[in-house]
Design a protein that fits this description.
It is built from eight helices and no strands. By secondary structure, it is mainly alpha-helical. The chain folds into two domains: about 60 residues, no CATH class; about 80 residues, no CATH class. Helix 1 crosses helix 3, helix 1 packs across helix 4 and helix 4 crosses helix 8. The longest helix has 21 residues. The radius of gyration is 21 Å and the shape is extended. The chain starts with 7 loop residues before the first helix and ends in a 17-residue tail after the last helix.
């Protein structure tokens, strides 16, 4: 999301699979989940592949599901929220330190004093999107602003804010 490498189509597929996981956990079988994807306008091939992902490694009769996509979404929301928080708190340096090793956003906050004192070294390599702090900060700042716009106040006739 932050790098711009996830498009709306992928977000839709992940969202549909998360909904399908909930259906399967509530008892929907493979065929019902397959039809759910068809009804969501996926091709028969994509619907079958998506249903396969939902039932990967579990019985296809319903009541169980493979929940990896739910974890993806949780991670996406968690990292996006972390970067928004870091911007608000003027701690974007934490985002860079994430690349010093395999750690969570909670870890990097706990390790901040160790990075600041030099006990832990900063990362040797960082992806380009994190090194462009001004661009990242601008995107996140706009996100913070845009999320405060009340969609119920938009004029349906012209799409502008009703003031």
């Amino acid at each position: 999301q932050i790098t711009g490498s996830i498009d709306i189509g992928r977000m839709k597929r992940i969202s549909l699979r998360i909904e399908a996981v909930a259906l399967a956990l509530d008892g929907a079988d493979f065929i019902e989940v397959f039809r759910y994807f068809l009804d969501a306008e996926q091709t028969p091939e994509d619907s079958f592949a998506s249903a396969q992902r939902v039932f990967r490694g579990v019985p296809t009769g319903g009541g169980a599901a493979f929940t990896k996509d739910t974890v993806y979404l949780r991670g996406l929301v968690g990292v996006h929220t972390f970067f928004r928080w870091a911007l608000r708190e003027q701690k974007l340096q934490l985002g860079r330190w994430l690349f010093a090793g395999k750690m969570t956003v909670t870890d990097v906050q706990r390790f901040a004093p160790l990075f600041e004192s030099g006990v832990l070294l900063p990362p040797r390599w960082m992806p380009p999107w994190i090194t462009r702090a001004n661009g990242l900060a601008g995107m996140l700042a706009f996100s913070l602003f845009a999320n405060r716009i009340r969609l119920d106040k938009i004029d349906e006739d012209d799409g502008h804010l009703a003031i």
